[in-house]
Structure prediction request, 215 residues.
Amino acid sequence: MADMAADRDAVVKLFSKYPFVEIVGANPIQQSFPRNPFTNTLDLAENCNFYILLLGGRYGFEIRPGTSATEAEFDRAVQSNPTKVLVFQNTSVALEPKQQQFIKKVGDYYKGYWISDYAFTHDLQNIVERSFLALLKDRASIGHNLSYVDHFVRLASQRRPTSDSTAYYSVTKDLVELCYEFHGKSHIIQFSRARINADFWGCISELESQFVTWI
Prediction:
C-alpha cells in the first residue's frame, strides 16, 4: 500500500475502458466491508476471476513472520485457480532481500509463472492489456467452476509431444491418466489428484519433460 501508486493507477485507468471489468483489491477501495482487511483481501484473491500481481522493490507488510500480505494473497489466488494469475515486475527499482526470494518463488522455472518486466507505467498498461485479452480469449472457450483437475486435464490435453500425436485421458477418483499415441506407439503417464492439487505446475512441467523422453 505504501508504494507503486503510479503502477496501480496505470492498471486502474487501463481497465476503466472495459465496462465489464470490476477491479477489486485493497487499493483502490470501492466499498466498505464488514470484515477485517486480512480476511477480506484473502477472499478477494480467492474469488476474483483474474489475479494481477505487481512486483515492486519492497516485500511489504508481513501478516506473520516471513509471509507478507501480498504473498498470502498470491498463494490464495493460486490455490483457487492456478490459471488465473498474471505477473508483472517493475525492473526500475532495487529489490529487498525478502522480495528477491518472493520473486524467485513466483517465477520458478518449473512451478511458477512467466513474469513480464516493465520499467515505465505506459509499458505496464500495454503489457497488462495484451496479457488480459489473451487470457480472456482462452477463457471464452472453457466453462465455469472448474477444479484443479479440470484445469490440468484441459492444459495437458492441449499439449502434444509431436504435431501428429493424439491425446486421450481418463479421470478416476484418485488418478488422472493421459495417453498419447504417435508413430505407432502409445505412451501413458499418470498423476494422482493429490499431487495435481499440491503441485499443479510441477505436474505440467513433468509432463513436458516426459514428452522429450518419448520422442
User: Anything to note?
Assistant: Helices lie at 5-15, 37-47, 69-80, 97-106, 121-139, 148-158, 193-198, 200-214. The chain has eight helices and eight strands. The CA atoms of residues 135 and 141 lie 11 Å apart. The beta strands are 51-55, 62-64, 67-68, 85-90, 115-118, 166-171, 175-182, 185-192.
